[in-house]
Amino acid sequence: MKIAIEVGSVAEARQAIEAGFDVIQLEKFGVAEVAEVAAIARRVAAPPLIAAAGGVTAANAAGYVRAGAGLIVTSAPYWAPPRDVCVRIAAEA
């Protein structure tokens, strides 16, 4: 079992890291703030999983991952426009 906490500031994230939480969910943090928290987390023996949430989209998700988020929390796929999917079955030559 993992113990997770949602935080709203870098200071709260630091406290959660020091308290030993397994997962720290960063709510509506910018990429720079995620990088700051990830750097703090790397200083402890058992770093927590950093989860970026709120404001994460397909367009900016890679930036959050590069900043140190190990998990992306987003509802963006639920709001994406539908895509046309085509399947073709052919005999192998």
CATH architecture tag:
Alpha-Beta Barrel
Separation, N- and C-terminal Cα atoms: 50 Å
**Major sheet: arrangement of strands:** 1-2-3-4
The CATH homologous superfamily corresponds to Aldolase class I
Taken together, the total number of domains comes to 1
Please give the number of β-strands. Answer: 4
Portion in strands: 15-25%
Rg from C-alpha positions?
A: 18 Å
Give the number of helices.
4
- Low-confidence segments: none
User: What top-tier CATH class fits best?
Assistant: Alpha Beta
Element pattern in H and E: EHEHEHEH
Which structural category fits the helices and strands?
alpha/beta
Helix content: 25-40%
**Average pLDDT taken over every residue:** 93
- Biggest β-sheet: count, sense, barrel? 4 strands, parallel
What would the principal axes of the Cα set say about the shape? elongated
Determine the CATH topology.
Answer: TIM Barrel
Report on this model:
This protein is an alpha/beta fold and 93 residues long. Helices cover 34% and strands 18% of the residues. It contains 4 helices and 4 strands. The protein has helices at 10-19, 31-41, 61-67, 76-79, and strands at 4-7, 23-27, 49-53, 71-73. Helix 1 (10-19) links the parallel strand 1 (4-7) and strand 2 (23-27). It starts with a strand and ends in a 14-residue tail after the last helix.
Key words describing this protein structure:
alpha/beta; 93 residues; TIM Barrel
In terms of topology, how is this protein built?
Blueprint lengths: L3 E4 L2 H10 L3 E5 L3 H11 L7 E5 L7 H7 L3 E3 L2 H4 L14
Parallel strand pairs: 1-2, 2-3, 3-4
